[in-house]
Amino acid sequence: MSKGKWIAGILAVSVVAGLSYVKIKNNQKAAANMPMGKGPGGGPMTVSGFVASYSKLSNTLNVTGSILASDEVQLQPEISGRVTYLNIPEGSAVSKGTLLVKLNDADLQAQLKKLQAQLKIAQSNEQRLATLLKTNGVAQQEYDAALNTLNNVEADIELLKAQIDKTEIRAPFSGRLGLRNISMGAMVTPATVVTTLQNLSVLKMDVTLPEKYAGVIGINDMMQCSVDGVDEPFSARVIAIEPQIDELTRNLKVRALVQAAGKKLVPGAFVMVKLKLKDIQNAVLIPANAIIPDAKSKKVIIADSSKAKFVVVETGYRTENEVQILSGINPGDTIVTSGLLQLKPATPVKFSKVNSVADIQ
């Protein structure tokens, strides 16, 4: 090996050794400056805590709903035909039974006149033979045939009148008409939506609740509601509850009657609902951020002999800041509320600050 290469090798080894020495010194300084409890073999980790205790849970549920008309229907013809009469003043109020649409029934009216003429003849024959039957002037069989003819003509007339009724669309209840979708002379079918009719004298509201509230809501419970664009809030009274929970969504549908809503609400409006449920007097509450969820359960960390202990808990109602604990911890337990990701079981802990229920409510 030449003298130059030998000198270059010595210089390279010296540089590497110098860099390693600097790195070791820096690591020693960083370890010396690291807070207690965050380095291997360090002291207890400083965390915040919360003392669990009994308190009153004012249970308010926030959900959403939709405004409904008392009655609502899409008006469609029962048969196909051409429109010969149209009486749909858009957006206007109409009374029950008002004729809105009439289809061409000229052929049916002609058949009706024919049957009415046959009816007169059948009635006359039946009356004449009935008189003769009383004096044995005619056989019973002949009279029965005349009576059967009369009954058949009357039945045909009733059938024809039912067919004529199908050429008319009348308001099934009093309400307000929607927009007209057809014009005079149009050909319509049973699939044609002519217009809509809504009864707005009373408004209802449908609300969907999670299944866990099925046992705490009842008939006549009051809901406090608000709608965007309407300044004044309003209330609604529960009038019906679906007897079963939806298997797909696991939700329960509740129907309420809107109280004194005025004319500002319209069907289909999105409603924000606050439902005041029954207060729970002796509930164990903890901060919501103390819950550690995982795939199978929910856990909290408590201080057991100044060491972190992971405990599986069962939760109940949840508010904006707190969660009800049904099982897993007892009043008086101190729960860790900070540094949850850094803690492991049996890690020594000390509390810099301990809060209570009054601090989160």
Summarize the structure.
The protein is of the alpha+beta class. The chain has helices at 3-33, 106-134, 140-165, 357-360, and strands spanning 45-51, 54-57, 60-75, 81-86, 93-94, 99-103, 168-170, 175-177, 187-188, 195-210, 222-227, 234-241, 251-259, 270-276, 280-287, 292-293, 298-304, 307-318, 322-327, 334-336, 349-355.
Descriptive account of the structure:
This protein has 361 residues and is α+β, with helices and mostly antiparallel strands. 25% of the residues lie in helices and 39% in strands. The chain has 4 helices and 21 strands. The chain has helices at 3-33, 106-134, 140-165, 357-360, and strands at 45-51, 54-57, 60-75, 81-86, 93-94, 99-103, 168-170, 175-177, 187-188, 195-210, 222-227, 234-241, 251-259, 270-276, 280-287, 292-293, 298-304, 307-318, 322-327, 334-336, 349-355. A 6-stranded antiparallel beta sheet has the order 2-15-19-18-17-16, with no helix packed on it. A 6-stranded antiparallel β-barrel has the order 3-10-13-12-11-14. A hairpin with a 6-residue loop joins strand 11 and strand 12 (234-241). The longest helix is centred in the N-terminal third of the chain and has 31 residues, at 3-33. The chain is elongated, with a radius of gyration of 41 Å. Residues 27-40 have low confidence and may be disordered.
